[in-house]
Specification:
CATH class: Alpha Beta
CATH architecture: Alpha-Beta Complex
Number of helices: 12
Radius of gyration: 20 Å
Number of domains: 1
Distance between the termini: 30 Å
Strand order of the largest sheet: 7-10-8-9-11
Largest sheet: 5 strands, mixed, barrel
Order of helices and strands: HEEHHEHEHEEHEEEHEHHHHEEH
CATH topology: Spore Coat Polysaccharide Biosynthesis Protein SpsA, Chain A
């Protein structure tokens, strides 16, 4: 990727925080669609597993755990079906450049390298400030980069639906959810309410519980109206901005100041200041849990999904895939 002129100017005084292969186009129309991919995790829980498999400790999103592409590449290839590279922004962690850049060519034109690890909320909203400066009325799809989904085509169709709903009902953030098959205490749970008016596929969220106890998770599942939170969501810039402002007004005073500085040399100092002065915030616990009334959910039906946060989940998924391949008639392969 090439740096823009702005990036070159900033790099003389500070470490590069954003690299753009193309100049973002300023446009306040409502037709714009962006993908914001979060790839900043350090992967500490899987360090030993990754080292055994690959001989080095690198974050799992950059590893080829499935086929010839990394989880980051799989994620961006899916989203490329609905968002061009010119409108795809990836947030990576400190010291991730060497791992990430070779994998992003042709998939994402814009990369934000965080100056520090300060939680998913600061990572997400610092990047969203850039989109807000360029295309303030856009609809944004937010996605993790370390989850397994299959089949891709059906998954992408659900994203298209969520985008359409978020574009029409512009004050609501639409989350993709998965029907739980066990009371997993490491995931988030969305409690469902009534359907949105004229959108039977989407239901209001009346409660959000991030990583509840096993007993609490069992109660939520027994009620029959709860979904796992995939952390994949679609919303307009303003809906996402208002969602965060309600939960963290102090941080948003700084973020509001950052928006007009995007594209100027002062951008990098402003971002660095936010990372140095704001407390670490988790997007699920510190933002989503506090404002469930601003959310709606669409269930991922007919799609296998797994949050590959534990080695057991990865190995279980891979074993199931191998088993299906062995049981298929010869000459037929999965996508």
């Amino acid at each position: 990727m090439k740096r823009t002129g702005t990036c070159l100017a900033a790099a003389r005084s500070m470490p590069e925080l954003r690299i753009s292969a193309t100049a973002p186009r300023d446009d306040d129309g409502e037709h714009h669609q962006w993908t914001l991919a979060l790839a900043g995790g350090g992967g500490t829980r899987l360090e030993a597993y990754i080292e055994r498999r690959f001989g080095q400790r690198i974050p799992k999103q950059y590893c080829r755990l499935l086929g010839s592409r990394s989880m980051l590449e799989h994620t961006l290839a899916r989203l490329a079906l609905v968002t061009p590279a010119s409108c795809t922004l990836v947030v990576i962690g400190p010291n991730h450049l060497a791992h990430a850049m070779p994998q992003l060519h042709g998939l994402a034109d814009h990369v934000v390298c965080q100056p520090a690890s300060r939680g998913t909320a600061i990572a997400l909203y610092t990047a969203l400030a850039m989109i807000k400066r360029w295309t303030p009325n856009a609809t944004v799809t937010i996605t993790p980069t370390d989850h397994y989904v299959d089949p891709s085509t059906r998954y992408v169709n659900h994203i298209r639906l969520a985008r359409n709903v978020a574009s029409r009902i512009r004050e609501v953030v639409v989350v993709l959810g998965v029907r739980p098959n066990e009371p997993d205490p490491e995931l988030g749970y969305l409690s469902l309410g009534d359907c949105l008016t004229d959108v039977p596929e989407a239901r209001r969220i009346v409660g959000f519980a991030e990583k509840p106890s096993v007993a609490a998770a069992q109660t939520l599942i027994a009620g029959g109206a709860a979904l796992w939170n995939t952390m994949v969501m679609c919303g307009t810039v303003n809906a996402l901005w208002d969602l965060g402002r309600k939960a963290a007004p102090g941080m948003f005073e700084m973020l509001d100041c950052l928006v007009p500085l995007v594209g100027r040399p002062e951008e990098w100092e402003a971002i660095d200041h936010i990372y140095r002065t704001q407390p670490a915030l988790n997007f699920s616990t510190d933002i989503l849990e506090l404002a469930p009334e601003r959310l709606a959910a669409i269930e991922l039906e007919g799609v296998e999904w797994s949050d590959w946060g534990r080695a057991e989940r990865i190995e279980t998924t891979l074993a199931l895939r191998r088993g299906r391949e062995l049981m298929k008639p010869k000459g037929i392969t999965t996508a």
